[in-house]
Amino acid sequence: MKYIVVTGGVMSGLGKGITMASIGRILKNRGYKIVPIKIDPYINIDAGTMNPYQHGEVYVLGDGAEVDLDLGHYERFMDVELGREHNITTGIVYSAVIERERKGEYLGQTVQIIPHVTNEIKGRIRSVAAKSGADICLVEIGGTVGDIESMPFLESVRQMQGEENGNDFLFVHVTLVPFTTLKEQKTKPTQHSVKALRELGLQPDIIVCRGKETLKEDVKTKIAMFCNVKKEAVVSAPDTEDIYEVPLLLEKEGIFSYISEKMQLEQPKEDNEWLRMVERRKSCSDKEFFIAIVGKYAELEDSYLSIKEAIKHAATELGCRVETKWIEAEDLEACEKDVGSFFQDVRGILVPGGFGVRGAEGKIKAIEYVRENKIPFLGLCFGFQLAVIEAARNVAKLKDANSSELCETPHPVIDLLEEQKEVVEKGGTMRLGDYEVFIRGDTLAKKAYGKKKIVERHRHRYEVNPAYIERIEREGAVFSGTDRSGTRMEILELSQEKHPFFLATQFHPEFKSRPNKPSPPFKAFLEACLQVQKFC
Ligand code: GLN
Fold first, then answer.
1. How many angstroms is it from 423 CA to the middle of ligand 1?
2. In angstroms, what is the span from residue 495 Cα to ligand 1's centroid?
């Protein structure tokens, strides 16, 4: 097994996750089998209880793990399916160590960070790597070098390097090279972060420099000299408009030749499927239109990252370019009349997942507007539940219909199923991950997926209340997808005589979308948008 460890310096948010995902893609293009691991040094067991406003989207894996959004980058770039063991947090590591201590497994020893916590970390990394059957394991250590939380993890990889063969371990450090007002590229922050790494006993093999523009040659020379790496190992990673171009940019900078030389990899011929995808994306730019996303954290676009990516994937396949107009649901809620003014020039409206009452009525207003004005609509999870509420209120005439998540209501059309009523703990207790969905024939959903049984990822606690299904369906809405038993509603749509495209899913199709394999509901939604003659 070979290991590539990615660390970050200077500050967070530099795109370490995308850098690692891109290195993974480059290696995959050369035929190597890759396994990625994300280390998150926070004490939470997982990202499930974390506020997306601070951390961005909570990404959901097939096995139901609620993880950091970087795992979404890995799945999309490397086209792999990951599981909970691919995200290691301080919370997971310490609970395991404490559990072992309670069982008496440490045989009377004093339990310490070194060696007990570090052994736990190394054991986990090695076991995920070994189980995957991969050639190369990529490990990203979250946070920035110097944070207290990441120390045990950095110490663990330092030990691992000594324990593995020299050619089998490589460190990539991602840093920032800022620009001054005089357009000078400054290397000092990079020098300092590498110094911090070296104080911990780690010497980077490759330094990936993020910045506005390509690094000048003399700046590369300077970084190489001060940071004790070869000049070829200083890689420039300037901002790009399209993240899917990053693997190509890094490859051009010679990162693969350097890695292959250092790790003694062969240089097999490159598969250029990724390159073709990026070129297709570039050629899409002339057919451009807007859709609106009505969200709660609309100001922090990272909280809807996978949705944004899924839109891009579907747009690429359809040869168009879709721009997003972010609408804050609370602004819509406050709007007394002329809801339409929020949606000028958009061809379709998407209402994404969410929690809690803030902004919910604004989203319902948007749904009423799209239904009445026959504007293409895609609702996801909470967006599905709110579409059910809207249909119950305004079509089935159940005044005050609502979700029991949001308020007390005489008509809880969205409610907790019995099993959820008993749940006390908040973390990891929703209906999470892959579940089968059975689709009715002759529906929009069937047309979109082209099959009757699908598997999609879920993350919800509330569901359509079975007591109201018949009443809602009587008025023309169709539950076109359910679970195997037929009691859990998974997809809502309006018949095409009533509306050109109105589809909402209890699941989150965005998590399975890939750059080369767009998600069917997204593709169908954009196809419907393309057919819109008149904008809102
Ligand atoms: N709040 C809703 C629920 O828990 C929807 C969740 C979501 O959109 N992910 O069921």
1. 15
2. 25
Q: Which residue's alpha carbon is nearest to atom 1 within ligand 1? A: 355
End-to-end CA distance of the chain: 55
Q: Which atom of ligand 1 is nearest to the CA of 463?
A: 10
Q: List, as one string, the DSSP characters of 131-178.
A: HHT-SEEEEEE-S-TT-TTTHHHHHHHHHHHHHS-GGGEEEEEEEE--
pTM for the whole structure: 0.94
- Same domain (yes/no): 265, 297: no
Q: Which residues are known catalytic residues?
A: 381, 508, 510
Q: Is 253 in the same domain as 302?
A: no
d(CA 372, CA 339) in angstroms, rounded, equals 12
Q: How many domains does the chain have?
A: 2
Residue whose CB lies within 8 A of the most ligand 1 atoms, among 57, 296, 355, 488, for a mutation test: 355
Domain of 438, CATH number, reads 3.40.50.880
In a domain, 535, yes or no: no
Q: What is the DSSP letter of 514?
A: B
CATH number, domain with residue 60: 3.40.50.300
Q: 536 lies in a domain? A: no
**Does ligand 1 come within 6 angstroms of the Cβ of 462?**
yes
Is the N-terminal amide bond of 115 cis, ω within 30° of 0?
yes
Q: Which domain holds residue 487?
A: 284-530
In which residue ranges of the chain is pLDDT below 70? 297-299, 533-536
81-129 pLDDT, tens digit per residue, is 999 999 999 999 999 999 999 999 999 899 999 999 999 999 999 999 9
CA of 431 to the centre of ligand 1 (A): 10
**Which one of 277, 301, 334 terminates a domain?**
277
